[in-house]
Task: inverse folding
């Protein structure tokens, strides 16, 4: 067993070979996290978790153990996935990414965060996302602010988004929020990849790359890989057959995360 729920606010992770919190947080999946004196704090929607490594275990103390057990995808065996991705020329990347898990993020937060992150630098867009949360999200008992829900997001004007550094994305975000209020996550989750892709591309400010990120991180479509120029360059050394194995297989999204982290 990779991890077990101890009580309603505590998870114990027993297999650190499949849980590297530093690599997970620095693999481009999540933007709201902070290093603490003895570990890391992660926010997802209005939930928060503190992760501390204690000898050969990781202790996760949080507001909802069931939520974070699902969030960190502890029911999935990533060792088995990695073993299915063996491509000799990329072995360093696969080894470097050991311990990365694909998070199950909040749908609305993922959509809006990745719209803000598109063609943007990490320092700038993380500052913007945190400012949005501080100004419009509810304060949690841990002293951090939740990502605002759609009702709260609807209060943010185009001018507000621009003031917080969203630039040309501001009108897209306002429209996207209106569109998200008309969508049903459960219904979207039932769609095939192609159908889901078509629906997500209708959202203002969402292009192919952001769509792939949403499918992977919000809908857990592990066979979908967000590919950019860096990923294409990294796999250019591979044969066509090897490229197909990495980016067109059932775990293409996981392979992409290993390569992305390796290139950082």
Result:
């Amino acid at each position: 067993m990779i991890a077990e729920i101890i009580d309603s606010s505590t998870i114990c992770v027993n297999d650190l070979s499949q849980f590297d919190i530093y690599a997970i947080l620095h693999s481009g999946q999540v933007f709201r996290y902070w290093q603490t004196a003895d570990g890391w704090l992660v926010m997802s929607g209005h939930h928060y978790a503190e992760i501390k490594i204690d000898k050969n275990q990781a202790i996760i103390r949080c507001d909802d153990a069931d939520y974070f057990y699902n969030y960190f995808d502890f029911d999935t065996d990533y060792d088995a996935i990695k073993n299915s991705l063996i491509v000799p020329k990329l072995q360093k990347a696969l080894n470097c990414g050991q311990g990365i898990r694909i998070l199950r993020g909040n749908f609305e937060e993922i959509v809006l965060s990745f719209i803000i992150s598109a063609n943007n630098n990490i320092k700038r867009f993380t500052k913007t996302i945190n400012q949005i949360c501080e100004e419009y999200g509810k304060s949690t008992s841990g002293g951090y602010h939740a990502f605002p829900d759609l009702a709260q997001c609807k209060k943010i004007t185009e001018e507000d988004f621009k003031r917080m550094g969203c630039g040309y994305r501001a009108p897209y975000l306002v429209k996207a929020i209106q569109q998200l209020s008309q969508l049903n996550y459960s219904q979207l989750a039932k769609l095939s990849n192609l159908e889901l892709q078509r629906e997500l591309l209708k959202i203002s400010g969402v292009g192919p790359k952001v769509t792939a990120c949403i499918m992977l991180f919000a809908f857990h479509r592990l066979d979908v890989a967000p590919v950019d120029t860096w990923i294409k360059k990294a796999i250019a050394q591979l044969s066509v057959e090897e490229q197909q194995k990495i980016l067109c297989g059932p775990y293409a999204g996981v392979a992409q995360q290993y390569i992305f982290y390796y290139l950082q």
